[in-house]
Amino acid sequence: MSTIIVVNGAYDWRPHLIGHEVVQVHLGRSRWLLDRGKLWVVDARGSYAPDAILWRIGAVDPAPMHRACLEMIRLSGLPCVNPADTLLTGYDRLGMLHALRQAGLPVVDFTVFAGAGALEVLEPDLPAVLKVGNLHGGLGKARALDAASWRELVALPDLSTTGYATAEPFIDYTRDVRCLAVGDDLWAMERRSPGWKANVGTNAHDIVPVPPALATWTRAAMTHLGADVLGLDYLESADGEFTLLESNDIPGVRGWPDSVPRAIARRLTAKLERT
Ligand SMILES: Nc1ncnc2c1ncn2[C@@H]1O[C@H](COP(=O)(O)OP(=O)(O)OP(=O)(O)O)[C@@H](O)[C@H]1O
Ligand SMILES: [Mg+2]
């Protein structure tokens, strides 16, 4: 029986991985070793030599250990969903945005600020959205409607400790659509909330037909990033134009049909069978 390590995440993957030993480990509570090319993961319950990895650390600012473990997975050559290469590209928000631009996707315009006081040097066109660090779930993101609120916002982050920040135009969108790809399969979800962040306090999320343009772009991103699974967040404006905000390489599965986690698990087991 092969051993599949699920790293973090709250979802129970066992029903989709019948016939495999599924061990869930948490990065903060485990130790990782790569010895003569073989990967070992040790926690309070025992030590495991995984045959495959399901990497589910999403929605957190990546810690240095994340990168180390991803590099160890890459060195070990073990099958991993997403591949460690893809996860390392997505590790940093600017790197991820660069890759999406290279793939020809309609990435939102953004200004980047680094260094203490950088935000005070230049005021972007307003209204703008300020995004600090590499956080998810709406964290580290605030909107400035006018110059006075921009001046308030720039006083909050200390870029000498948080790293860079970006500012992008606020898009007065009519639809917030996440397009999710697993292999060749695609789904789309429209999210709504009372506020401007559709992913915060979401009170409606509907599976909708995948808009053809999003299908093309999302597939291009999958190919460019060599990904098994991606969630791309798009905004549609009143004139029907789509803008891409970001790509999530560890997209959540809650709220999506059961076929989504099943497809993710199948992707991993197919890779395992090929090794
Ligand atoms: N420039 C913008 N204009 C208008 N709305 C925006 C803009 N940027 C973000 N939003 C809103 O805020 C939500 C969250 O933004 P974004 O996807 O960039 O960050 P996130 O919190 O990291 O998301 P996730 O939880 O998907 O990782 C978007 O889905 C969108 O509804
Ligand atoms: Mg998002």
Largest sheet: 5 strands, antiparallel
In helices, the fraction of residues equals: 25-40%
N→C terminal distance: 14 Å
Number of domains: 3
What name is given to the CATH topology of the largest domain? Answer: Rossmann fold
Descriptive overview:
The protein is of the alpha+beta class and 275 residues long. The protein folds into three domains: 3-85 and 264-274, Rossmann fold; 111-169, 2-Layer Sandwich (Dna Ligase, domain 1), CATH 3.30.1490; 172-260, ATP-grasp fold, B domain (D-amino Acid Aminotransferase, Chain A, domain 1), CATH 3.30.470.20. Helix content is 26%, strand content 30%. It is built from seven helices and 16 strands. Strands 14-13-12-15-16 form a five-stranded antiparallel β-sheet. The protein has a four-stranded parallel β-sheet with strand order 2-1-6-7, with helices on one face. A four-stranded antiparallel β-sheet has the order 8-11-9-10. Helix 1 runs antiparallel to helix 2. It is globular and about 60 Å long. Bound molecules: adenosine-5'-triphosphate and magnesium ion (MG).
